[in-house]
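Two folds, back to back.
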Amino acid sequence: MITSAIGDSKILQATQSAPLQQNEAEKLSASEGFEKILNGLGANAFEALRTGESTAIAAIEGKATTQQAVMATMEAEKSLQAALAIRDKIVNAFLEISRMQI
């Protein structure tokens, strides 16, 4: 289950942050909705990595505490692990489909 790999990270929040209205959900095709979710996940993972890096640099400069640097780095690591797990699932699904006989 993906949520166990994600935990409380920002990636999980991206999928729940903007619930679609009934009319809007009907207008989106399955591929458009899936694409929108993946784009949100990627953007949030990138933002977590950027925040972790900037907090680590701030800690080196003495502008942030060690605890803040560790927390930001751990959040970035969780986001990266979740993104890799999602990528692996997508690749495995593609490989499974490519093995099907037509």
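---
second:
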Amino acid sequence: MVPKKAVVTVSSQSHPRDGESGVIEADAPNNYQQIVTFSDGERLLVNNADLADAIVSESNERTYPKEYAEAIAQISSAAPVAVNEFSSSSAIAYKTDISENYQSFAVASL
């Protein structure tokens, strides 16, 4: 997470906001860019390479709002159960199908 109200300066000559400072008021969407709000109110997604003093997260994990993180955790914990149930029912259906085919084959070969 980025400390609120972190001030950064665009230092890339190729960037249209070169030399201007802005404020990071939101968490970065990834480890390579920042959402910067400039004094005129414009919010831009700026590459860290274009900033003189970018704050780069050490983590490679994506961060989500609390509500999303809770929903993802619930889905993640329910997924293995669903996969196991599906796997078990598929195995039973497969075994039943093989058994029926074998019985049909055995009767036909007599």
